Amino acid sequence: MAAAKEVKGLDCGAGALEGIRLVLRTRFGEMYDLREATLGREDAKGVHDMRVASRRLRSALRDFRGFYDRKGLPKRRLKEVARALGEVRDQDVAIAALEKRLSKASGAVAEGIEHLLDERRALRSRARAGLGPVIAEVPLKELHLKFSSWLEHAGGGARDKPGVRRSLGSALGASFWQAGVEVIESRLTELLKLGDSIYHPFEFESLHRMRIAAKRLRYALELFAPCWGGRLKSAAREVSELQTALGDLRDCDTWIADLSPRLDRRHDKSEDAGASIADPRVRPAAIWLLSHFTKERGEHFSSALECWQKWENSGFFEQVSEALRGIQAIQPEAPAAQDRQ
User: Fold this and answer.
1) pTM of the full structure
2) Domain 11-155 sits in CATH 1.40.20.10
3) Which of 22, 57, 265, 327 is least surrounded by Cβ atoms within 10 Å, i.e. has the fewest?
4) Model confidence over 301-322: pLDDT tens digits?
5) Any idea where the domains of the chain sit in the sequence?
């Protein structure tokens, strides 16, 4: 995965809102600058990089949502961009997976995989056709202007509303450093709440939510790592290992869900049946792939389980929390009120 763009000029001791604006401006700019590379190349890298940048931006918006007024945020347009990028990326990933397995197949299985590849390439072409208008120069520039305008005026509204509980980071006078403590601890709690999912290997959606929580924690650790002298980078790498294992597990679940109906003859006459369900050329490949992904799924689950057990035995979450609180206690005081605007 491409490294996130450095947030230049970030002052962890300055006001939280000042740092948040700088982070969000950088994350949007990172996504925006990848538009031409995404549209101008046929390989998967451009789409992948822009999608990751979009995810980092949306994750940061989620992290900081208690610090700003969301009124005016072009949330729907941001989701539209993310969705269009995701539809192309999903097909890129599927094509890469099939091409990898094709190199190990032969005969009728190889022929069936070729047919599945043709399906996926057609889906990718349609997804790319849908992506073009969404990230074309004019609409994306309009989104940039709307986002910049919102960002310029956002701040304070969310925490000034009656009845909203004020936490450490959303309180007046909080520094960006203190915001980092709140965000990371919130992400730690989110992942911990989903931790028992790892002991239920067939609760697919729970494991999927656990993967998303791990990704959000990793993004937060990476974002605030400079405020802790880089001491959070090793924790981010460990979380990345869990995220990867759960992500590979999710990919296998998606393939199993796609392949199983192709082999169930009861689906041959269903209204939503794909063209390849009744195609005898695809059946040998679907059986072979189903066997492969079922076996591979077990390996990825074991990796995720082993990672989680290692964390429980080492007190990983407690170590991260203690590091946050310990270092925060020796940091300079928050900036004066006039510097927090």
Assistant:
1) 0.86
2) yes
3) 265
4) 999 999 999 999 999 999 998 8
5) 11-155, 174-333
